[in-house]
Please model this.
Amino acid sequence: MPKTDTSTNIEVNQSTIFANFLLLTHIYLNGPKEETRFYVPVGIGFGSASYTVKVNGESADASGSGGCYVIGIGANWRTKTGNITGGELRYTSSGIDGNEPDSIRDQNISILSVNFYYGFDF
Model:
């Protein structure tokens, strides 16, 4: 979400966009056919970030990309309708490095997230 701060007639706006694309799997700690299943989500992929900073109407942009990985712990269980519901705690880490002179250089973006879901069991 962009933020704006004004001090002595200087206005600064900064915004960040971050996205990652993952190949993710679940490693089950007990049988995948159990009523309640515990698992470790792991994945690798590609991350991309871009920053925009505006000072008094002048704009500067920087971007970069790199590899990323995810690891976590989760559990899900079958509902009375046969579907599943569950939750996860995930840690995502992305190494961002651009090739251009004004790009994001040697940064690591780390995210700790809690996910809840409801879905279909195949």
